[in-house]
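haha ok so turns out i had the wrong file open the whole time. this is the CORRECT one, sorry everyone. sequence first:
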Amino acid sequence: MSEGALVGFGDDGLFVPTYPDDSKFQEGVFPDATGMNATNWHSCWTLVGSGYYYNVLAWVTGGLPRNPTCQPVKVFQVAMS
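then structure:
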């Protein structure tokens, strides 16, 4: 069994809680350790396993996706009554 990624919903939609944003680190200054919420979701066509080609929800970890079919999306939670 594998461990899953933690996800949640906030004001900006679906997010993955991550570690502190090291792009803001400064030499000799202790960083703000509250972390950030990664919301870089994309809809991409991808090969799953050996023979299934699906349009999937993908989280791009940094920069731009390499897959040219990826389109940025916002994912929101809708309460059902």
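The mean pLDDT is 81.
again sry for the mixup
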